[in-house]
């Protein structure tokens, strides 16, 4: 869920970069583009970590449930 919210922020920053490029402000576009890239990387890493944590939690829970049954 956190990765989704951060991804939306990245999309918004990408929009700002596109608008700056349309206005021929390439320095501003590059600035917004770098920010969007950073937010995309953060969102992807946190999203993958979240999925890994969920998988580990499910596996540990099922192993523990099998030992107590």
Short description:
By secondary structure, the protein is an all-alpha fold.
Keywords:
mainly alpha; 69 residues; rod-shaped
Structure write-up:
With 69 residues, this protein is mainly alpha-helical. The protein has one domain. The chain has two helices and no strands. Helix 1 runs antiparallel to helix 2. It starts with a helix and ends with a helix. It is found in: Membrane. Keywords: Membrane, Transmembrane, Transmembrane helix. One of its GO terms (cellular component) is membrane.
User: Can you tell me the residue ranges where pLDDT is under 50 for at least 5 consecutive residues?
Assistant: none
Number of alpha- plus pi-helical segments: 2
* Estimated share of beta-strand residues: under 5%
Whole-angstrom Rg? 19 Å
How far is the N terminus from the C terminus? 33 Å
Query: What is the mean pLDDT?
Result: 92
| Outline type | rod-shaped
Helix share of residues?
over 70%
Family: Belongs to the CD225/Dispanin family.
Pfam family, one: CD225
Keywords: Membrane, Transmembrane, Transmembrane helix
Transmembrane segments: 36-65
How is the secondary structure organized here?
Layout: H1 2-22, H2 26-68
Helix pairs in contact: 1-2
């Amino acid at each position: 869920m956190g990765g989704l919210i951060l991804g939306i922020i990245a999309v918004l920053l990408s929009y700002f970069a596109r608008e700056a490029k349309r206005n021929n402000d390439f320095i501003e576009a590059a600035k917004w583009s770098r920010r969007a890239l950073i937010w995309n990387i953060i969102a992807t890493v946190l999203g993958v970590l979240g999925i890994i944590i969920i998988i580990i939690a499910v596996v540990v829970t099922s192993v523990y449930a099998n030992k107590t049954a």
